[in-house]
Design a protein that fits this description.
The protein is built from 3 helices and 13 strands, in the order E-H-E-E-E-E-E-E-E-E-H-E-E-E-H-E. By secondary structure, the protein is α+β, with helices and mostly antiparallel strands. Among the domains are: 31 residues, no CATH class; 38 residues, no CATH class. Strands 1-6-9-13-2 form a 5-stranded mixed beta sheet, with no helix packed on it. A 3-stranded antiparallel beta sheet has the order 3-4-5, with no helix packed on it. It is globular and about 55 Å long.
Length: 220
């Protein structure tokens, strides 16, 4: 378990990207976890007898032999923040000129996000949407607070944690969204998350089974 340490009086804010489906899951209150690929800092390398052999815990050593010591992956600081730090969400957005004076709207739940009182609302296809990576802090509408976290292998995810990831379900919950085939379903939450991961990270991303940061959060 990664030890997330924090001080509420010294919180920091960092940006984080989410797809439209995951933005909707956050807005609905269904998503309280996210997994991000674990990347080593530039000065570190895997220790061969640890993570490279697929063990549950891996050791990390400095590449520079003058820097002594070794670290477990749980000891490295999380690049997304510590306990109580906040993440402001970047998502696909626009400020369409047709909606004078041009409020900010969001692709994830358009047109429901259009403020009341506006007329002549253009269809989504007529709007020139801007990539989430270009969203400035002042236009972000979702702020998350980190409540915990850990490091684990991607495939260690459980059905329960898959649900916390915000995957979609149908009816009696025996069918879950397949994010790789439109309109298709799978039988378990974990399988649904596998398809979600592949839809975001590409073919073979699940099979690679990388180490990931597991971030737990609540919406502020």
């Amino acid at each position: 378990m990664h030890q997330f340490l924090g001080n509420p009086s010294m919180t920091k804010e960092r940006p984080i990207l989410f797809s439209g489906a995951m933005v909707r899951a956050i807005l609905d209150g269904r998503k309280t976890q996210t997994r991000r690929v674990f990347k080593l800092p530039s000065w570190a390398d895997w220790y061969v007898s640890g993570a490279m052999q697929g063990e549950k815990t891996g050791d990390i050593v400095p590449k520079d032999p003058r820097q002594r010591g070794w670290y477990s992956i749980e000891e490295l600081p999380c690049p997304y923040g510590q306990l109580f730090d906040r993440l402001w969400v970047r998502e696909t957005w626009a400020q369409p000129a047709a909606l004078d004076p041009g409020p900010t709207v969001y692709r994830a739940d358009y047109p429901a996000c259009v403020p009341a009182g506006f007329e002549n609302i253009p269809p989504a296809e007529a709007i020139r949407w801007k990539p989430s990576i270009h969203m400035p802090r002042g236009l972000s509408r979702i702020l998350l607070e980190i409540t915990g976290g850990r490091v684990e292998r991607l495939q260690d995810i459980t059905d329960t944690d898959s649900i916390f990831e915000g995957i979609g379900g149908y009816g009696d919950k025996d069918a879950w969204t397949d994010y790789t085939v439109a309109g298709a379903t799978v039988e378990t939450p974990r399988e649904s998350f596998r398809t979600l991961w592949q839809s975001i990270n590409g073919a073979g991303a699940w099979e690679a089974n990388p180490w990931v940061w597991v971030l737990e959060f609540r919406r502020v």
